[in-house]
Amino acid sequence: MGIVIIRFKPYVKVLLNESNKEVILSRPMKDGDHGDKYELSDMGLEMIRYLVQGISRQKLIENLKLESQDEKTEFEEILELLTSMKYIGYEEENANEKYKDIEQIYGRLIPLWGEIETKDMNRYDIQKSIMSKKVGIIGCGTIGMGIISKLVTVGIGNFVLVDNDVVSRTNLTRQCSFTLKDIGKSKVEVAKKFIQERLENNKIDIYNKKITSVEDLNVMDDVDIIVVASDEQQVDTIIQKYSIHTGIAVSYSGGYTGNTGKIFPVIIPNINHQYDCIIDYLQRVEGKSTEGYREINNGFKVSSNSSISEFISSIASFEIIKFLTGTTSPYLMDKVLFFNFSNYGIEEITIDNAHCSCIRNGSLPLLQS
C-alpha cells in the first residue's frame, strides 16, 4: 500500500473563519446545510489548513513541529475528534487515479458514500458493491418504474421484473418513464428496454405473469431485496411468507390516494417488524382502520399525480439504496411515513414494540434482545 493521505472527506463543507479562529463543518446526509461550529486553538487552525489540501500523518506532524507531550496529546485529540465525527478520512495517495473508471461515471455520487464508508469499505468499494446487487421488482407501473429509474442511476443493472400488465395511456399521466410508443406493450418489456438504454452492463430477467402463490416467487431466490409496487393486496401476504422463509428483505414502497400517501420501511426478516404487524399496529393503535364500515361507492377511482408518485419512489428508492450499501441502515426501519401534499405535512409513526404483533408472536428476536 502506498502513502496514506489524511484529508477532509469530499462531501464535507468546511467554512473557516481565521480571524475568529472558528470553523463550521457540515456533512450533507447528517447535517444538511447546517453544521457544527468549533473554536480552534492555534494548532487546530493549522491542522484545518493542512487537512483541506490532504497530507500524510508523518508530514503533518513534521509541519506542526510537535515538541511537548501536551502538544502531542492535543494533536491526537483533534485528529480523533475529526475522525470519529467522519469529517476526515484516510485514503491511499492518488486514489482517484486508481478508481478512475468508476470515478468518471459516478464521480458526483461517490462522495456521498464517504459519510457511510468504514475502515474496511471505502466509498469506492460501496459504489462497486451497490452495482453488484440484484433487485426483484413486483409491479412495473407508476411507483415500480419510479424506483427502477432511480436504482439505475446508482449503477444497479441486475433485475428480476414481474408484472402481467401492459402500458396504457393513463400510465403516462402518473410518471415519466413510459412514452406514447410504449402503449399496449408489456410493462416488463418496456422496463427492460428502459434499463438497457441506460446501463451497459445489465442482466434483466422478465416474467409477464401475476403472483398468485409462494412458488411463483422462486424466480426471486437470488435477489438481494424484493420491491413490492403492486396494488394487489393478496400479493403482500404471499411475499411476506416467502420473505420469512428465505430471509430476503422486502420494500413494500408505499401507496397514495389523492393528496395523501404513505411509505413503508424496508422489512428485514427477524430484524424489524413484518408487514402484517405494521398494518395491524396502524389499525389498532393509530386508529387508521376502516373496520366496521361498508363500502357503498364501488365506482370510486383512486386519484393520483406524478408529483406524489415521484415523492414516494424517491424516498423508497433511497431507503433501498441505503440497505444495499451494507454500511448503514435505512431511516424508516421501525417507522411509517405519512404525508399530505395539500399542505406538505409529514408524519412519522414509530411502531411501538410494546403493542406490535411481532413481539406478541415471538417472531422478532433481535428487537427483543
From TrEMBL:
GO molecular function annotation: nucleotidyltransferase activity; SUMO activating enzyme activity
THIF-type NAD/FAD binding fold domain sequence ranges: 124-358
Pfam families xrefs: ThiF
GO biological process, one term: protein sumoylation
Top-level lineage group: Bacteria
Keyword Cell membrane among UniProt keywords: no
Name of protein: ThiF family adenylyltransferase
Native organism: Falsibacillus albus
